[in-house]
């Protein structure tokens, strides 16, 4: 028996060695170019995978430590996959706007079971899917949506002014209901009545953060991709539950729109569901995948940013007073409809908004696949075909080369005189290039409209210090223990 085990072990070892040598021969060019990029020593076959065998929330800390040790360009191997992380802002812009790096990286494949291939995950259809949806996100469409934003924020205000001023609460739980209604009545194209009667909506609002946490856990624990391990740990059952939940929600939205599909006289008012359905190129499954992609990236992300702004203002009472007084002085004392021109006039609000985006990055990192060789770092580094390019947005937004006291929250860093001293490419909250954030105009209008009108009626307070604020850094960056504030009603009249 021992001899059999020895023979089998020897055969296995020889096969692995042959595979390893064949792989190295086929990837000679990649190996040669990789030598020019600094990084930790890699083991045969597994590469640097052992470095990243840790808790999900510590994965990006590992990348940050490597950047600190090796500089703005680092490489690491995850098995046979070459990953090159680039932190230099100028090269980041060059890469993200290049047509040689125009596909999402392999990490996005973990999202495919839930939302298929498309706008968020890439694949052969993303360009066409984005092109169809794009008119629903442009400035003309957002002008139409402003009416809904202004109307729905009144409901949020009613909730906030009834809070006990001595009780701390997580404002996200209230804000996300507001953003959900806004997204349903604009991008989804639903009526107010239908928006309040969507199958499993409350469940989706609660479970969406858990879905993304589950995806991130699979991204960072390679062994969970083994079907047996995923089954025995309960992941397979959880995944089936999430997929069914998403399908129930999106099927109901699609069905509701098909029952009441009306072409508006102004094409800009058409929601994304109608655009996809009228276009006729997508299957029902593809439409539902894009519905959930654009639904959750709009309502959840916007809710987190609004909550972040309100929480920062609670911790920075001087800035809260600046923003409030600016609203009163520029827009007048009465709580009236907020339009696009109003948003452009409020520079203090814009500074707080941008500092929130810097501190709580919408995407902690993004990944692209290099499709053609491309040279960076003044010609010193060439990224080989097949490389997984990593852009660590969270780390760029915290780089002391560009940000004074980067771990502190300082809205004044977005004063014009401070912006002029900083590399403009060091601030990329919505990414760059053809795969940038589709909803940047939509989100900015929604978020600022909400904050303006809420601040007219509510003064926010906070406990503790921002120095003790803990972050949960995964697919996005959020406050680990919630967006906790106290709300005190201002002496004002709700129109």
TrEMBL record:
<dbReference type="InterPro" id="IPR050196">
    <property type="entry name" value="Cytochrome_P450_Monoox"/>
</dbReference>
<comment type="similarity">
    <text>Belongs to the cytochrome P450 family.</text>
</comment>
<keyword id="KW-0256">Endoplasmic reticulum</keyword>
<keyword id="KW-0492">Microsome</keyword>
<keyword id="KW-0472">Membrane</keyword>
<keyword id="KW-0349">Heme</keyword>
<feature type="transmembrane region" description="Helical">
    <location>
        <begin position="6"/>
        <end position="23"/>
    </location>
</feature>
<keyword id="KW-0408">Iron</keyword>
<dbReference type="InterPro" id="IPR036396">
    <property type="entry name" value="Cyt_P450_sf"/>
</dbReference>
<protein>
    <submittedName>
        <fullName>Cytochrome P450 4V2-like</fullName>
    </submittedName>
</protein>
<keyword id="KW-0560">Oxidoreductase</keyword>
<dbReference type="InterPro" id="IPR002401">
    <property type="entry name" value="Cyt_P450_E_grp-I"/>
</dbReference>
<keyword id="KW-0503">Monooxygenase</keyword>
<dbReference type="Pfam" id="PF00067">
    <property type="entry name" value="p450"/>
</dbReference>
<keyword id="KW-1133">Transmembrane helix</keyword>
<keyword id="KW-0812">Transmembrane</keyword>
<comment type="function">
    <text>May be involved in the metabolism of insect hormones and in the breakdown of synthetic insecticides.</text>
</comment>
<dbReference type="InterPro" id="IPR001128">
    <property type="entry name" value="Cyt_P450"/>
</dbReference>
<keyword id="KW-0479">Metal-binding</keyword>
